Structures
1.
Amino acid sequence: MGKSDKWLLLTFLTIVAGVVGVAGYWVESEPLNIGRYYLPNSGGPVMFEHKAHTDLTDGCESCHHDLLLSDDRYDCSDCHEDFVAEDFDHTDLKTIEAHSCGTCHQIDESAQAQSCRNCHSSVQETDEVSTACIECHDAEYTADLLTHDEMREVHDQDCGSCHYSRVISVAYHEQCNRCHFVENVELFASQEGNVRCEMCHLK
Ligand code: HEC
Ligand code: HEC
Ligand code: HEC
Ligand code: HEC
Ligand code: HEC
Ligand code: HEC
Ligand code: HEC
Ligand code: HEC
């Protein structure tokens, strides 16, 4: 390593240490103060214990999925001898009990958790789920040109340029129930296996 390289490295490390220090300070000085959410809706209001759930679950990204990096992933081989990603559908990978999104996807440390409503609205404008690139670009633009994180980046994190996100109630029902059924199906489902609505909706 040349002398100037060493200086460069040293300067770089100093900046990194500074940034990490400041970031650590911010996190420590701003404890998450959201105890609970009262979510009124036509099915009966839902009391959601945010703080309790944060303590119960692995990480913020189990719900705030926009904190996930889709491309930076752990390999199946980190934990398994005989599974490779190519043999599975993503839908199947998500529903394996022992997996949460963060089992495979790394976290975007620079992102902030947001309200689900920022992206999942209360009315479904269309039945379609996504837009084709060709609606806005030339025919040579196809989804396999870029990875998902790159697509997010070139579109300034505007998910809506490609997705019609599902409505808020469906987003909640799907996400909340998926985890509850893994954690404690006896509590959250009836003997016939139906969702027990009254576990969440107060009358
Ligand atoms: C079990 C699911 C779940 C977990 C885990 C979770 N949250 Fe949340 N969070 C929610 C829901 C639901 C809301 C209400 C969102 C809304 O207003 O639409 C919320 C709201 C928030 C908001 C307010 C957003 C806004 O602009 O109104 C912040 C900030 C937040 N969460 C941060 C965190 C952080 C940090 C963690 C991890 C320490 C975390 N959450 C863990 C589900 C969760
Ligand atoms: C951080 C660790 C981790 C990573 C990474 C991971 N898994 Fe898993 N996976 C587990 C654990 C723990 C289980 C439950 C215990 C078991 O069955 O081995 C599991 C279970 C499974 C099962 C169900 C096994 C069964 O017999 O029911 C499949 C299939 C699976 N994983 C596939 C994958 C694939 C494919 C990948 C990569 C895309 C992957 N996993 C990445 C930890 C991981
Ligand atoms: C067992 C590992 C595993 C789990 C669990 C998992 N993913 Fe993935 N995810 C992958 C792999 C592998 C890919 C890339 C291949 C693919 O698209 O099937 C991927 C791709 C993605 C993409 C990019 C879309 C695309 O097709 O390029 C997004 C977004 C994503 N995952 C979100 C999630 C969310 C949200 C969850 C939790 C609800 C989740 N993932 C759970 C392994 C996993
Ligand atoms: C609703 C319209 C819309 C759709 C659909 C859309 N894009 Fe874009 N895209 C844009 C706009 C607007 C920009 C410019 C964004 C900016 O500069 O902030 C852009 C920028 C880009 C860029 C980088 C700049 C450039 O022009 O080369 C790439 C690459 C790209 N899009 C690829 C895609 C791909 C791949 C798809 C389909 C998976 C897609 N886009 C779907 C509107 C769209
Ligand atoms: C340039 C287009 C584009 C942009 C912008 C984009 N996505 Fe995607 N996304 C895709 C494509 C293409 C897929 C894979 C095909 C599919 O499943 O629709 C995908 C898949 C996903 C999936 C997996 C769907 C599933 O059911 O597993 C999630 C979650 C997702 N995107 C979230 C986001 C979020 C959050 C944002 C914004 C921060 C975003 N996307 C921005 C094109 C885009
Ligand atoms: C930055 C925008 C954004 C935020 C914030 C966001 N989502 Fe999403 N979400 C998306 C997009 C885009 C998709 C892919 C389109 C789709 O499937 O609806 C998606 C997909 C989903 C899915 C289906 C994919 C899966 O995980 O199986 C669920 C469920 C979901 N979101 C629930 C939530 C909940 C609950 C919250 C709040 C805790 C939330 N989302 C916050 C943009 C967002
Ligand atoms: C990552 C997993 C996970 C997610 C996502 C999740 N929960 Fe939970 N929830 C739990 C666990 C674990 C418990 C405690 C279950 C037990 O006592 O065995 C729980 C308990 C509850 C209870 C209390 C039930 C009782 O004992 O009376 C309610 C209500 C609830 N959750 C609502 C929600 C809502 C609303 C959402 C979606 C915004 C949600 N949960 C998302 C894991 C989750
Ligand atoms: C895990 C908790 C949970 C369970 C279980 C649950 N819900 Fe919900 N439900 C929610 C949340 C959270 C919302 C959205 C609140 C909001 O809009 O902020 C919601 C919204 C709704 C809405 C309003 C839809 C709209 O578009 O305004 C209806 C109706 C509803 N749920 C019916 C049901 C029924 C029927 C069941 C049983 C089959 C059920 N829910 C089970 C949490 C739950």
2.
Amino acid sequence: MKKPAIALLIAVAAGCAPAPVIPAPDAAMAAKSGEKLPTLQKGYGVYTTQCSRCHEPMMPSDVSDEDWHIVTPGMAWNAGISEADEAAVLKYILAAKQ
Ligand code: HEC
């Protein structure tokens, strides 16, 4: 038990805390958000691959719903993804925040 805590302390002290884990969709997330699980999985897949090419993907909960609605279309254009993929990413992000 002690070793991970020490490793974390060193990482934080060195200014490189481990990146937070982007939550993977599951049945509970789908049920809570009212979205279909395959849609959320598609959005998660695009988010963790296409949206992490230029920067670390942000934690969905670190940005307000309103800002996600504003930022995502521009970033989808940056990423060159389809409108369907953009819609799935936004659905996933908003579901992951709930
Ligand atoms: C081609 C490179 C590129 C890709 C691909 C990309 N981004 Fe970005 N992203 C940027 C840059 C550069 C910034 C910082 C400047 C800015 O805000 O425009 C940024 C900033 C952001 C921010 C912070 C915005 C803010 O105002 O604080 C979010 C959130 C974000 N990106 C989400 C995404 C999502 C979601 C995707 C996938 C659909 C994505 N990004 C794909 C380049 C990219």
